[in-house]
Design a protein that fits this description.
Elements: H1 28-56, H2 66-74, H3 78-102, H4 107-110, H5 120-128, H6 130-142, H7 152-161, H8 166-197, H9 202-215, H10 220-240, H11 244-263, H12 279-308
Helix pairs in contact: 1-3, 1-8, 1-9, 3-8, 5-11, 5-12, 6-10, 6-12, 8-9, 8-11, 9-10, 10-11
Length: 309
């Protein structure tokens, strides 16, 4: 797997190689911002929410569990979703963009914003395979937790993402799919992965950012469930030598989860009668089935490209 397709003729290639200026291959900035990202994002979000509570919150919001109750109430409103989601996304975009702009390398290359190093048909197929990785992630989490008893954090997330239609659903997709797909991938599979790839190989460049990506979700069940997804996004970025396909895969994953929750209702039980399955539920099942087919086809395409190279 370490012999993934690379663009060795490009000056922005991420494959570890000697450079005349040692400062261009240093990895400590990537380690530093990655280690500081989890506590930094939590602190930034708490400060932002506290300021919002002081400005818009009810009387006594800082007494007892008033702040937690106020945040839970916000989760059920569209403005509240923006207030809850935006701070974390702002933090990750800033944590990626600021050090990239200060880097001696071109900032777009430092963030991995470059043309994918494999064919479009291959990377698009791999992106479309992401929903089946979402299913595998849920099965992985079920090995360690009872998913029928979600945590308080996951209950609030469900409140935020379900029960929306029309423009409200579009707004939720933007806040919870497009923004995270851009900001989190720019940071974890962009700045961090590209930085680690300067001197380290596949294991560190893919798995370490995935671990910190999972930890950033700050909930044992949620973190365990997104770990396989973080690895998958890292694999896509590693194979393509680009952050762009990983961003699209992340946005597709979140969009699929949101749409399935809003249109298919409760999860299908294995014993559900065929005639009781709604059209929306059937469409969701077919979509995940197609995603499995895309996974097989995409890996075949990738294997052939690597064999030719």
């Amino acid at each position: 797997m370490t012999n993934a397709v690379t663009d060795s003729t490009s000056p922005s290639s991420e494959t570890p190689h000697p450079v005349s200026d040692p400062s261009l291959s240093r990895t400590w900035p990537s380690w530093l911002v990655m280690i500081g990202a989890v506590p930094g994002s939590v602190l930034f979000s708490l400060v932002f929410l506290s300021l919002a509570a002081a400005w818009w919150g009810p009387v006594g919001v800082f007494q007892g569990e008033g702040l937690a109750r106020w945040i839970a109430e916000l989760a059920g409103t569209l403005p509240g979703i923006l207030i809850i989601v935006l701070p974390g996304q702002m933090f990750f975009i800033s944590a990626a963009m600021l050090p990239a702009l200060l880097s001696r390398r071109p900032w777009m290359g430092r963030l991995g914003l470059r043309r994918p190093a494999i064919s479009m048909r291959t990377w698009v197929t791999l992106v479309l395979a992401t929903p089946v990785i979402q299913v595998a992630s849920g099965l992985f989490a079920s090995l360690f937790f009872d998913l029928t008893e979600p945590s308080q954090n996951l209950q609030m997330l469900e409140t935020m993402l379900t029960g929306h239609t029309g423009l409200g659903l579009v707004f939720v997709l933007f806040c919870a799919a497009v923004l995270p797909g851009m900001s989190e991938e720019l940071f974890f599979r962009g700045y961090v992965r590209v930085g680690l790839s300067r001197r380290h190989g596949f294991m560190l460049a893919v798995f370490v950012p995935a671990l910190f990506f999972a930890a950033a979700h700050m909930d044992p069940i949620h973190s365990t469930a997104v770990l396989p997804l973080g690895i998958w996004f890292g694999l896509i970025a590693w194979w393509t030598r680009s952050t762009i396909p990983a961003m699209l895969a992340h946005a597709l994953n979140n969009s699929m989860a949101i749409l399935a929750s809003n249109f298919a209702g409760e999860d299908l039980e294995p014993q559900t009668a065929l005639e009781s399955i709604t059209q929306a539920q059937a469409l969701v099942v077919v979509s995940y089935g197609l995603s499995l087919a895309f996974l097989v086809i995409g890996l075949i395409f990738l294997s052939r490209e690597r064999a030719r190279s």
